[in-house]
Amino acid sequence: MARRTLAVSTLGLVVLLGTAACGNDQGSSDARPAACRTSQLGWKMTRLPGKQRNTPVATLSAENKGSKACVFDGYPSIDVYIGKGPSADGKPKKGATPVHVQLNPDRTVEFPLFYEATAVRGDGCEVSAEYDPSITVVPPHTKDGSLIKMTDAKGRHVRAQVCGTDIELGSPQLR
């Protein structure tokens, strides 16, 4: 009986030391966080007051509401649309930096949005505020998204309007 106990103890020690030597510690702080998923993000799209030349019209922000850090490895997908009709899609702004941001719990990443929100005289908008367009946002590397509403700086609902087919996303900022 004593031999069996000694053998089991020795085998357990060998397995434990082997795991430590191989670096197979699942609780290691070196483990890279997983990609941010829709379920752990809270999205907001905020219309900015006024419109200066070469300044963003709105911001798109995502807060990590989960209990673990996650990684934004790319730009989110954004689509402003009216039913099955006209739409405007997001794409990175020319010259925007590549995105690789670790988003810790309760932290926010914010993307400036550049697009024409006012029609040129005598011309209409691709996605008119008259129809209160829907806005869908999808984090990078996922397929499921969130339906969000645009608000003003005070959190009141405002109707989105895009007078073109593209929304350009600028380089993100951590908040």
What characteristics describe this protein?
175 residues, mainly beta, 10-stranded mixed β-sheet, 12% helix
Describe what this molecule looks like in 3D.
- This protein has 175 residues and is mostly beta strands.
- It is built from 1 helix and 12 strands.
- The strands form 2 sheets. Strands 1, 2, 4, 5, 7, 8, 9, 10, 11 and 12 form a 10-stranded mixed sheet that branches. A two-stranded antiparallel sheet has the order 3-6.
- The termini are far apart.
**Can you give the helix content as a percent range?**
10-25%
The multimeric state of the shown protein is single chain
User: How many DSSP E strands?
Assistant: 12
Q: What is the average per-residue confidence, as pLDDT, rounded to a whole number?
A: 83
Beta-strand portion reads 25-35%
Categorize the overall geometry.
globular
DSSP summary: helix tally: 1
* Biggest β-sheet description: 10 strands, mixed
Write the layout of secondary structure elements.
Elements: H1 2-22, E1 41-47, E2 58-64, E3 70-72, E4 77-81, E5 87-92, E6 101-103, E7 108-114, E8 134-138, E9 146-148, E10 150-151, E11 166-169, E12 173-174
Parallel strand pairs: 1-10, 5-11
Antiparallel strand pairs: 1-2, 2-7, 3-6, 4-5, 4-8, 7-11, 7-12, 8-9
